[in-house]
Structure formats: C-alpha cells, structure tokens
Amino acid sequence: MQIPGIGKALPIVEGTDEKSLKQGVGHYSGTVYPGQNDQILLSGHRDTVFTGLDKLKHGDKLIVKMGHGTFTYAITDTEIVEENDQTVIHSTAPDEVLTLSTCYPFHYIGNAPKRYIVYAEPLGKH
C-alpha cells in the first residue's frame, strides 16, 4: 500500500490481530479485496504504519497493489468513532469503499479510546 501524501509504502498482511499488525497494515478478514465492489477494511497502528494519517486531506490518493492489479482510491471522508464501534464495518456493495482504521487520538499514550476512520472511493484500476 502506498500513501503518497505522507510518503508511506507499506506491506499489507492478512488479519488484524496483534501479531499481524506488527508486520504491516492488516486486512480485516470479513471484508473483500480491491476490485470486488464492496468494503475493504485495512487497519494499522497510529504510531507505526499509520503515523501521519491525520495529515491527509479529502482527495488525497491511497494506492493498493495486489497480484491482480493496482487500485487507486481518493479520500472522501473521515470520522472519529468509539473504539468498539462496529458500525464502520459493513457491506457497501455494489459500491467499493476502502476504509482505513487506526487508534485515536494520534498522540495519546497507551490504549487510545477512539478510532480514526478514513473512507476512500476508487479512481480506477491500472
């Protein structure tokens, strides 16, 4: 995964457990992959892979490279939710939505009480 707005190039791993998130951005197993016209949820730690995520603006690009293609998304919205808010995980079919999730506040010490959510829509497959 590439996040040009903050100069990041990150590996995507399957799973969002603690071990997986130490290796990179985690793909939430209950969601689809790019190109499958539904929600893709990727999670990461705010103090490692997603440092600087709060600096991105609407329209900034997110690029996901998969074996079956490279997919570019543009950020359309952000929100802050409670840490156990599961409403951000839902089907978006037939629309594809890339959702990023990380802990919030960004400069909080310890287990953060909220989640920062980024929504992005496809610009196209290369």
TrEMBL record:
Lineage of the species this protein comes from: Bacteria, Bacillati, Bacillota, Bacilli, Bacillales
This protein's record includes keyword Secreted: no
Name listed for the protein in its UniProt record: Class D sortase
Source domain of life: Bacteria
Record keywords, A-Z: Hydrolase
Pfam families assigned to the protein according to its UniProt record, in alphabetical order: Sortase
SUPFAM superfamilies tied to this protein: Sortase
